[in-house]
């Protein structure tokens, strides 16, 4: 898994770079000036879960917390690479969906996860010939992004007031990995709020390749097949709602489907970010800040 992660990150870095060079040759990537810059971003937002324990009515429920930070490096005036890390929470519960059949299943989860990603960032509004410096960039811009990332995967369930890690228990007889690949894709808008400062609002959808972000996917496993009593208890919780399901023969007879293995889990993140940009010649660079201080010193001392 570690080798796969390293290889995927290297591929994510190499492919957009080569693609950027090809598009620049076709005029799709604008290079109106030779300024180089990198940006630092911090932000917060909300995470949304889509899976077997999500609302069947289609509305978004149980929004989770999200914090992020990252670095953005420019390759041309409208193409850059982003390297980001974030913390986010997901949750879902049958008891909160207002669906009688779902309530009988009586499953729930929460997850506190971390994600890292390498993303290509493409601005949709090209700079004009007058915007030859970053400080003269457009007040507003929209953009698309996409890439590859990895997320931790540690769903938990609450039992008798304490949270239990579900992944080591194999509640369906499946022991899935704690690190999962994801493909983030999304769009956003940027607003200039200062010479080197921007506010960004974006939504990104994460395509996952696992159906176990919530620990629910396939069929119930017979309770007698578990060697761990805790795993058996958290695998089938219908008996907590209807005592008839405490009889294993009854539980094995009715509704063997615990989840829907035909559809993978996913999550989305809506975030607001503050971005500060450092350039080699423009506002925000060390040379620019020193020049401004020298100019103020000369103006002040001219009248002494």
Describe the structure concisely:
With 304 residues, this protein is α+β, with helices and mostly antiparallel strands. The chain is built from 5 helices and 10 strands, in the order αβββαββββββααβα.
Question: If you had to describe this structure to a student in words, what would you say it looks like?
Answer:
With 304 residues, this protein is an alpha+beta fold. It has a single domain (2-302), classed as Porin. The protein is built from 5 helices and 10 strands; from the N terminus they run αβββαββββββααβα. An 8-stranded antiparallel beta barrel has the order 1-2-3-4-5-8-9-10. A hairpin with a 4-residue loop joins strand 8 (179-192) and strand 9. The model is unreliable at 1-30 and 282-292 (pLDDT under 50).
Protein topology:
Blueprint (H helix, E strand, L loop, with lengths): L1 H24 L11 E14 L13 E11 L4 E15 L6 H6 L2 E16 L16 E13 L2 E5 L2 E4 L13 E14 L4 E12 L20 H7 L12 H6 L12 E14 L6 H17 L2
Antiparallel strand pairs: 1-2, 1-10, 2-3, 3-4, 4-5, 4-6, 5-8, 6-7, 8-9, 9-10
What is the overall silhouette?
elongated
Estimate what percentage of residues fall within beta strands: 35-45%
Helicity, in percent? 10-25%
The whole-angstrom Rg is: 25 Å
Q: CATH top level?
A: Mainly Beta
Largest sheet features: 8 strands, antiparallel, barrel
Record keyword descriptors for this entry.
304 residues, alpha+beta, disordered N terminus
């Amino acid at each position: 898994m570690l080798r796969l992660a390293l290889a995927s990150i290297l591929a994510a870095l190499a492919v957009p770079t080569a693609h950027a060079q090809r598009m620049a040759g076709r005029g799709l990537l604008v290079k109106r000036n030779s300024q180089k810059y990198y940006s630092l971003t911090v932000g917060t937002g909300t995470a949304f879960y889509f899976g077997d324990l999500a609302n069947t009515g289609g509305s978004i429920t149980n929004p989770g917390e999200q914090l992020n930070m990252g670095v953005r490096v420019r390759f041309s005036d409208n193409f850059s690479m982003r390297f980001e890390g974030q913390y986010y929470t997901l949750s879902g519960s049958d008891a909160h969906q207002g669906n009688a059949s779902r309530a009988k299943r009586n499953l729930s989860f929460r997850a506190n996860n971390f994600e890292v990603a390498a993303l290509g960032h493409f601005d949709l509004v090209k700079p004009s010939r007058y915007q030859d410096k970053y400080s003269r960039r457009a007040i507003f811009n929209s953009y698309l992004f996409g890439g590859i990332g990895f997320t931790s995967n540690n769903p938990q369930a609450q039992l008798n007031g304490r949270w239990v890690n579900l992944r080591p228990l194999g509640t369906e007889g499946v022991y899935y990995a704690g690190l999962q690949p994801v493909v983030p894709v999304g769009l956003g808008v940027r607003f200039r709020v200062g010479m080197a400062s921007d506010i960004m609002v974006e939504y990104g959808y994460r395509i996952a390749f696992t159906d176990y972000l919530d620990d629910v996917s396939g069929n119930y496993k017979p309770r007698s097949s578990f060697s761990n009593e805790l795993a058996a208890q958290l695998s089938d919780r219908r008996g907590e709602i209807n005592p008839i399901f405490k009889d294993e023969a009854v539980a094995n007879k009715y509704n063997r489907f615990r989840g829907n293995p035909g559809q993978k889990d996913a999550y989305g993140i809506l975030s607001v970010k503050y971005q500060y940009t450092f350039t080699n010649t423009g506002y925000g660079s060390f040379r620019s800040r020193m020049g401004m201080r020298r100019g103020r010193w000369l103006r002040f001392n001219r009248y002494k």
